[in-house]
Amino acid sequence: MQIVITGATGGIGFAIANHFASAGHQVVLADLQAAMIDSKVADLRAQGYNAAGIVLDVTDAASIAACTAQYQPDILVNNAGIQHVARLEDFPPEKWQQLINVMLTGPAMLSRAVLPGMRSRNFGRIINIGSIHALVASPFKSAYVAAKHGLLGFSKVIALENADKDITINTICPAYVKTPLVEQQIAAQAKEHNLTEQQVIEQIMLAPMPQKAFIGVDEIAATAAFLCSPAARHITAQTMVLDGGWTAR
């Protein structure tokens, strides 16, 4: 099968790409950073895997059209994400809109572009990478939380619209994952809260999580693979929460 993964050069995206490639699928790494795409594709090909890459801006209609003209995937993983941490009154409006465009409108428009092909083939899997913040909130993350909450509702609607075909749409929502994006958040939160970075990890990030651990990218990749397996063919419109017990409180 062919899998297109957005934000594929980052920690979560590349882990998913590597997992699917190692299982014998063709993976297409879609990202904004051309040099990073080339490097990551080369890494996969060096292992004998079937990998390709394409520059994709999920906020740009022409870029989405160019991607889907070249690739009509069996599986789409909407993973691209960005973060900005600030009080709402200090949040640049253009930055607020950018987060919504990347993490909510982008997945919607990319799904819109690939769904006709999936429906014609009577098969498709769309996996949206959400967050614990699709279910709970944290201060100073209004745009991110709004986008991820919206992604859950979007996923459920599209799953219902395509339930007449062998197409499923699900969202994976991990608690904090130790990726470069989270590393940046640690520094930003330390500044915002006037704490050390270790205090941010202990008092903010892992404090609500009973297991007191970061989620591994391998866990997310394996969950994505399970959602694409025959055993999960009737799992749709669901939220797969990898949170160490956070939302049980």
Automatic annotation (TrEMBL):
The entry's keywords: Oxidoreductase
GO MF annotations, alphabetized: 3-hydroxybutyrate dehydrogenase activity
EC number of the protein: 1.1.1.30
Native source species: Rheinheimera maricola
NCBIfam families per the UniProt record, alphabetical: PHB_DH (TIGR01963), PRK12429.1 (NF009093)
Protein name stated in the entry: 3-hydroxybutyrate dehydrogenase
Phylogenetic placement of the source organism: Bacteria, Pseudomonadati, Pseudomonadota, Gammaproteobacteria, Chromatiales
Family as reported in the entry's similarity comment: Belongs to the short-chain dehydrogenases/reductases (SDR) family.
The protein's enzyme class: oxidoreductase
